[in-house]
Each structure stands twice: as structure tokens, then as C-alpha cells.
Write a structure and sequence with these properties.
The protein is an alpha+beta fold. It contains 4 helices and 7 strands; from the N terminus they run αααβββββββα. It has 2 domains: 39 residues; 99 residues, Roll (PH-domain like). It starts with a helix and ends with a helix.
């Protein structure tokens, strides 16, 4: 409800005799000061929409076991607020790499009939990360998340 509606309701209560002059004056002042405070300090949701801060819940994507090389040890990609974590499993041990969103130089998606392959190249000089066998919808989610974080970090620098 906007400020005008709130003030109108308050005025109606005062006219009906439910509020004294002092109560009406105090409530009106509080409404006005609260509305000014809200306009100066947007909430977290408004910040994320305006691009100042992007927050996501941590989500892990697993390669399909139907894709080549992922039957026993599927690749995983975890997207978090501080970056992404790529994990490549093996018979003995595993290899993990954490990448900050600002370090992503390019992001390629190759779509098949059902599954997609992703290649992520970084500006840090490490080898590109190749994840095969993600569902198309998951590849789109990953791509949109990376774009959102890179768009937010680009706006902070300007």
C-alpha cells in the first residue's frame, strides 16, 4: 500500500473519532518519516534487481551419467555467491578448481538433442574447464547466473 492510501486511512480514523489529534499527528509523522527512509535505503530484493548485488542460493549441477566419461565419476559444477567450484572425480582422488565470476573470459555452450556441453575459459591462465553431459535447461541456468554476476560486477566498477 502506498503512502497516500495510508494517510487517507489515518485521516478517516481521525475523522471517525478513533484517534485523538495528538495520535493522528504522531502517526502521520511516523508514516512520512518511514516512507522517506525506505526510499533512501532500498531493500535487498530491490538491490539485486537494480544490479547492485546479486545473491543466489548455492546450487550443484551434475553431468549426466549417459554422457561420455561420466558413467562412474560425473563432473559437478557448484555455483555459489563467491564463485564456481568445478570438481572432476577420478578413481583415486579428484581435481577441484574454484573460479571467481570476474575471472571468466568466455563461456561456450554446445547443444545436442537433450544434453549440452559447456566450455568455460578463464583469464587467469589455467586450462579451460569442459563439462559435458549437462541438461540443456541446466546449461541455460548456469549461463544466466554467470551473466548476472558479471553484469553486477561490471556495474560496480563503472
Amino acid at each position: 500500500m502506498n503512502l497516500t492510501d495510508e494517510l487517507r486511512k489515518l485521516s478517516d480514523l481521525h475523522e471517525e473519532g478513533h484517534l485523538t489529534d495528538k495520535e493522528f499527528s504522531d502517526a502521520k509523522q511516523k508514516l512520512i518519516s518511514d516512507s522517506q527512509t525506505e526510499s533512501e535505503d532500498p531493500s535487498e530484493d530491490e538491490k539485486s534487481v537494480s544490479g547492485k548485488a546479486v545473491r543466489i542460493t548455492e546450487k550443484t549441477y551434475h553431468s549426466s551419467r549417459w554422457s561420455s566419461g561420466n558413467f562412474f565419476f560425473p563432473d559437478t559444477l557448484t555455483l555459489a555467491n563467491d564463485g564456481m567450484l568445478f570438481r572432476k572425480g577420478a578413481m583415486f582422488g579428484s581435481r577441484e578448481e574454484h573460479i571467481n565470476y570476474r575471472s571468466i573470459a568466455s563461456f561456450r555452450v554446445t547443444n545436442g538433442v537433450f544434453l549440452s556441453d559447456i566450455c568455460i575459459e578463464t583469464s587467469g591462465g589455467s586450462q579451460p574447464i569442459f563439462i559435458n553431459g549437462l541438461w540443456k535447461s541446466e546449461a541455460r541456468e548456469i549461463q544466466n547466473t554467470i551473466r548476472a554476476f558479471q553484469g553486477a560486477s561490471g556495474k560496480k566498477r563503472s
